Amino acid sequence: MADTLSSVEVSPEEYTSVDALTQGAILQGSEYYIQNLSKYPINAVISISKPSSDFDGWKIPADLSRPLIVTSGENTCWLKGFGKVSIQPA
Fold first, then answer.
1. Within a domain: 1
2. What's the domain range around 50?
3. Total domain count for the chain?
4. Which residues contact residue 13 at a Cβ distance below 8 angstroms, ignoring those fewer than 6 apart?
5. Residues 7-32: pLDDT tens digits?
6. How does pLDDT run across 44-83, given as a tens digit for each residue?
7. Is 45 helix (H, G, I), strand (E, B) or coil?
């Protein structure tokens, strides 16, 4: 995988956009990996608007061999959970 853009703590209270976590470092239309670095699943949602905090979304497993691959675009990837994630260009 390419250089890590960001290794950041994800909030368990509410969803945070990947754009905010990477401070806008991901170019529109580019693919990136989100890898769970914690020992708990991280919730991920692809949506135009911020999901409510009680929405579950997809689970990114605590398995370093299984990152989530996302393409940036009109919708945003939102993350919520306990622990850190690594965000890298594909």
1. no
2. 6-89
3. 1
4. 53, 80
5. 899 999 999 999 888 887 888 888 99
6. 999 999 999 999 999 999 987 888 999 888 789 999 999 9
7. strand
